[in-house]
Amino acid sequence: MGLFYEELTVGSVYEHAVRRTITESDNVLYCSLTLNLSPVYLDHEAAARGPWKKPLVNPLLILSNIIGMHVLDITAGTTHGNLGMTDIEYPVPVFHGDTLRSRTTVVSKRPSKSHPQSGVVIFLHEGINQRGEVIMRCNRAGLMIMRDKAAA
Amino acid sequence: MKSLTYEEFEEDHIYNHILKRTVTESDNVGLSCLTLNLQPLHIDADFASKSMWGQVLVDSMVTIGIVMGIHNLELTHETAPGSLSIKDARFPNPVFHGDTLSARTTVLGKRDSSTMAGCGTVDFLLEGLNQKGDVIMNCTWAKAVQKSA
């Protein structure tokens, strides 16, 4: 189970235990199911002629995984949903075979103006590869449940 | 579908995309688990039935993926050599199993320079809509688009 609004402290940093080696299978499946058939990700011949010389992992798959990794520690069962992300950056490209892990910092929190027993919490999510490089970061607003509501 | 070059994009032009995709339980549960998002709102129907939504909620990452996929396939499949992604995104309305998503792109602006050789930069607003015409996702970003040879 995750953490309710009251249990989140601004400034807390979580290093998540769930990690993942991103495989070619993940990338092909994700691109195919989401209709993103860009040759940058799926066409090895075209990718070999491109700037990275090999296929890139779809950055939306990376975003999904890095955000996914925080769920069991922080938001499983304790959120109403994702309000959105800002400042998404990809400082380093990700390729098949990279191993990713994730780190979350609680940036800020405030009660929700539109949902009486919920709060908006801003998280900083960072994805890190096997070399310790930050490969992705974003700020995300989650609508978190206040514990009093859950007990009601 | 013909991919557009940098020169062919005009400021304020709106593209209502043709492709649509019904989001199924298989998509949501499969992609949530594939991306390690074990949020019970997405994968536990019993839990979700007692949530504020009353049913399973589609993972917003699935939504972004599909809407972006439609946009890229119809506009820049062969002319976007860079890595595609968004700077920000918002989810004004929820998506549920069985909703059919479509996409709409607006060109916000363009400029000649780009970090990628042979490209200009186009600023897009991308919106995802459901079958009722509600906007379920919107995002903006700057994309490198190939110039004509």
Structure description:
The complex is a heterodimer of chains A (152) and B (149). Chain A is an alpha+beta fold and 152 residues long. Chain A has a single domain, classed as Thiol Ester Dehydrase, Chain A (Roll). In chain A, 26% of the residues lie in helices and 34% in strands. Chain A contains six helices and six strands. Chain A has helices at 24-33, 39-42, 44-48, 59-68, 71-75, 147-151; strands spanning 13-15, 20-21, 79-89, 99-111, 118-128, 134-145. In chain A, strands 1, 2, 3, 4, 5 and 6 form a six-stranded antiparallel β-sheet that branches. The radius of gyration of chain A is 17 Å and the shape is elongated. The mean pLDDT of chain A is 94. With 149 residues, chain B is α+β, with helices and mostly antiparallel strands. Chain B has one domain (6-146): Hotdog Thioesterase (Thiol Ester Dehydrase, Chain A), CATH 3.10.129.10. Helix content of chain B is 23%, strand content 29%. Chain B is built from four helices and six strands. In chain B, strands 1, 2, 3, 4, 5 and 6 form a six-stranded antiparallel β-sheet that branches. Chain B is elongated and about 55 Å long. The two termini of chain B are 19 Å apart. Chains A and B meet through helix 1, helix 4, helix 5 and strand 3 of A and helix 1, helix 4 and strand 3 of B. Strand 3 (79-89) of chain A pairs antiparallel with strand 3 (88-90) of chain B, so a sheet runs across the interface.
